[in-house]
Structure formats: C-alpha cells, structure tokens
Write a structure and sequence with these properties.
By secondary structure, the chain is α+β, with helices and mostly antiparallel strands. It has a single domain (about 1-95), classed as Roll (Ubiquitin-like (UB roll)). The protein has 3 helices and 5 strands; from the N terminus they run E-H-E-H-E-E-H-E. The protein has helices at about 10-15, 30-40, 80-85, and strands at about 1-5, 20, 60-65, 65-70, 90-95. A 5-stranded mixed beta sheet has the order 2-1-5-3-4, covered by helices on one side. The N and C termini lie far apart (about 40 Å).
Amino acid sequence: MIRVVLPAHLRTLTRVDGEVILDVKVQATQRSVLDALEARYPMLRGAIRDQVTQQRRAFVRFFACEQDLSHELPDTLLPDAVAMGAEPFLIIGAIAGG
C-alpha cells in the first residue's frame, strides 16, 4: 500500500479528498507509483509527467521522508517507509515567481 498526497489542483481534477491509497504490485519506485496513479486516474496523464518522455513536469516536485526525490532516477527505489505505507509520497506543485 502506497499513500500519495496530491496538490490541491490535482485533487480537484481527480475529485479526491485527502490521500490516494494505491496497491502497487511491483517494487515501489517513482515510475511504478506514477504508473499506478495514472492507471487509476487517467485524467492525470500528462499532468505530472510528459506522456512521451515520461519526464517529470518542470513545476512538479516529489518528496518522501523529508527528502526531495525530484531529481532521482524514475526506477530508484522509494524509501522503505513509503513502500510500507508509513510515510506518504508527496507530489507538490512547485511555486515560481519574483
């Protein structure tokens, strides 16, 4: 069981309140979590990562266990606490401006 926290605009898009609970059958990586998330909520395809390149969108960040995982390779294992459901995988909409 993987717990995923989406930013407000993606919760609105998916009509989800609070965390999303995913049953990921393979090892917990960014790729496997995002694949499961997009399979369950097809409207997220293209919102978090590019549909062709599978690269994270520029203003989307990934965090877990107080670590920024945004620049990790997509197939890097997520922390054990995330894989066991003790800690959530956070998808954050980055803020930019001057």
